[in-house]
Amino acid sequence: MEYIIRDATAQDMDQVLVLIHELAMFEKEPEAVEVTVDELIEEGFGQHPLFHCFVAEVDNEIVGIALVYYRFSTWKGRTIHLEDLIVKESMRGTGLGSALYKEVMKYAQSKGVRRVEWVVLDWNKNAIDFYEKSGAKLLKDWYLAQMDEKGLENFISKF
């Protein structure tokens, strides 16, 4: 199987959003995706892009993506966060995910960051095994904390 990994373009965002929805199904959260193609285009390719996206293509179809952005660590300085690495279900097990992962790590190294970080679901054994074999450290003593829009409204109104 021949594939190409390249930087995404604004024109790719329709297909990227399809993969985002596929990931939401895989993660058992099919209704969670709120982002639109227009938002992806504006936020990724507008005046001040908030993310960088790699796409993997087979026969002109996008079958995988890796979306990253900069974060700042008070301990490490500039880091990169891998928001999502998505491989179309029919392409899993082909090495495509590994190739996208390697592309992210090469990108991070070329940008001179001190760390790449991401989140993996505790039940995604295949991903966990892969990341550990790659040399990544899984931090089991930390919780991921989030506050959604409703939580923000409630917090602001109470405090």
Structure, briefly:
This protein is α+β, with helices and mostly antiparallel strands and 159 residues long. Helices cover 36% and strands 23% of the residues.
Q: Distance between the terminal alpha carbons, to the nearest Å?
A: 56 Å
Report the top-level CATH class: Alpha Beta
State the helical fraction: 25-40%
Name the overall outline.
Answer: globular
**Order of helix and strand elements from N to C terminus:** EHHEEEHEHH
What is the overall number of helices? 5
Number of strands: 5
Strand content: 15-25%
Q: Enumerate the spans where pLDDT stays under 50 for 5 or more consecutive residues.
A: none
Biggest beta-sheet profile:
5 strands, mixed
Instruction: Count the domains.
Output: 1
What is the CATH topology? Aminopeptidase
The CATH fourth-level homologous superfamily: Gcn5-related N-acetyltransferase (GNAT)
Query: What Rg is obtained from the alpha carbons, in whole angstroms?
Result: 17 Å
Second CATH tier, the architecture:
3-Layer(aba) Sandwich
Q: Overall mean pLDDT score?
A: 96
Strand order of the largest sheet: 1-2-3-4-5
Which structural class do you get from the secondary structure elements?
A: alpha+beta
Family: Belongs to the acetyltransferase family.
Pfam families: Acetyltransf_1
Protein name: GNAT family N-acetyltransferase
InterPro entries: AcTrfase_GNAT_prd, Acyl_CoA_acyltransferase, Diverse_Substrate_AcTransf, GNAT_dom
